[in-house]
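Comment on this:
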Amino acid sequence: MAKAKRRELEILHGGSPSDDDNRVFCRFALNDVPVRFKDLKVGEKGGGLCKDIGGGGIGAEFTRELKPRTPLEMWVDLPDGFEPLHLLGKVVWSNLLGASCRVGVAFDRPRLMSLARILKFETTEAI
């Protein structure tokens, strides 16, 4: 039986904790992994790129603006050959960046077992 190759994974450190940073889990940098979403308030769909992910949420850049407290259903297309990672969450912050919008999404509940998939591939970019 062939042994699985372990790859390097980068853990992002946010520097000194601030009063408004409520993260419980560390984040892992991703190299622009495609993500699709559905706005559960109005039913509109969109897409973008997942920049980082952790046990409690993701950081992404979407093609349209999303306001804080917007409930989302998301599918993250991890490059591991399996089905997309299906997640439910709520936008906790958003910043417009020209034609795109950078957002932070907190999961409705931690998804630790599902997120174990990210440990199987390499990440190289820090935020």
Q: What stands out?
A: The chain has one domain: 26-120. The chain is about 5% helix and 45% strand. The two ends are 37 Å apart (CA to CA). Residues 30 and 52 are 5 Å apart (CA to CA).
